[in-house]
Amino acid sequence: MLEKINFYYTNDLHSNFAQWPRVAGFLKDAKAKRQAAxxxxxxxxxxxxxxxxxxITEAFMGxxxxxxMNDAGYDLATIGNNExxxxxxxxxxxxxxxxxxxVVCANxxxxxxxxxxxxxxxxxxxxxxxxxxxxxGLTAPFNAFYELLGWHISxxxxxxxxxVEELKKQxxxxxxxxxxxxxxxxxxxxxxxxxxxxxxxxxxxxxxxGEVVNNTLITxxxxxxxxxxxxxxxxxxxxxxxVKKEAYATDISETAKDLETEQQLxxxxxxxxxxxxxxxxxxxxxxxxxxxxxxxxMQELTNAAREWTKADAAMLNxxxxxxxxxxxxxxxxxxxxxxxxxxxxxxxxxxxDELLEVIRAAFTKDFMELKxxxxxxxxxxxxxxxxxxxEVESDYHETGEEYVKRVTFHGEPLEMGRVYTxxxxxxxxxxxxxxxxxxxxxxxxxxxxxxRDLLAATLRSKFAHQA
Length: 467
Known about the structure:
- The protein is of the alpha/beta class.
- The protein folds into 2 domains: 2-271, Purple Acid Phosphatase, chain A, domain 2 (4-Layer Sandwich); 277-466, 5'-Nucleotidase, C-terminal domain (5'-nucleotidase,  domain 2, Alpha-Beta Complex), CATH 3.90.780.10.
- It has helices at residues 20-36, 55-60, 63-72, 81-85, 89-93, 143-146, 156-170, 182-191, 259-275, 296-309, 332-338, 352-362, 365-368, 435-439, 451-463, and strands at residues 2-10, 40-45, 76-77, 102-104, 108-110, 119-120, 122-126, 132-139, 151-153, 173-179, 197-200, 211-213, 216-219, 227-236, 241-251, 279-283, 313-317, 328-331, 345-351, 385-388, 391-396, 402-409, 412-413, 419-425, 443-446.
- It has a 7-stranded mixed beta sheet, covered by helices on one side. Strands 7-8-10-11-13-12 form a 6-stranded mixed beta sheet, covered by helices on one side.
- Strand 1 (2-10), helix 1 (20-36) and strand 2 form a beta-alpha-beta unit.
- Helix 1 packs antiparallel against helix 9 and helix 10 (296-309) crosses helix 15.
- The N and C termini lie far apart (76 Å).
């Protein structure tokens, strides 16, 4: 007898709730059809369902996401970095308390030795006809952040060595839920032939029909749930082995919306507005925001970053603020709308020559106009860099291109060999936007406060006198 075993999955929704009614509709229909046909079926999420860019997620600190997953019929999930490092310790500790699904993550550990009740390194499930399936979860090791929040991410391979060894004795099929990224999934497939399927995410890669590496099927469904993933496994009961593995990613961007889910989101939106509706400050006049110019509010925010972190200097890009501050009462909802990024401050050490290179790069047209996607940034363009503690004088070439003419610190030219502490957005510690910052060997992150928490404090302290 041949048995079909089905998994439907999502990854990297990032609280894109405009798409969620379609996701819920697709998953509910798919699961109902499989169950009506007498087939085994599970619905899975691979992490980064939560993203505090959305006011519903912000208001309920991710618990509304869990409620939506419950209603959509999820059975299993692992966590992504947006669940793991954008919530305070207690918020993550209790995030899944009301989950109707199992949460699996083998490399997440609380450093206070008390683990959440929902956290399991692996789980065993069984098909209708008795095929035993082991499920392992893993998340990306951002320990520079996790450890400041009271968590530790252990070695991926250490966790796999233990879990795979145990599960291959007790199960027929092993499935890994991986919020590690495509390159890591490929490496795991090369090292662990006993893993039959890797369902991936984190790097937002889309594999329409999967990829086979060392006989392991790897799959992922892009980002924002414009695609829903499906894995179909065929088990031969006569020969007691897996005879076929298939993976598909279905475009659901035009799928019919689930009306119950739409109504639920409508209700959650109004509840979130009440939660975030508390007044922060009253402004007698609007505060101007310019992405490519200097403004008072952006300067005060940069000053606050330097003062709070006690760094020598600070630099923040003006594109962090997405809109003007209107006259009148400013609420947390306004601040969240204007500064929605899950971005923390970070202090890095740079030598004078490295700092000069960073400042020169920030003045280029390519940098200021970059439409960055990812690294926590949820804006349109990076915008002009604003400085505190440094005096930056610029001029223009005949071509109209701006360049850095002089940089001074407390009135004196930068000393090329001196080490300076610079506060900036943690965005720049990743990737190649500003390589000198990313390469800095000393990085101190400030968690769990987001940049918008500092913005709220700045508005209270520097602009409340306008009331």
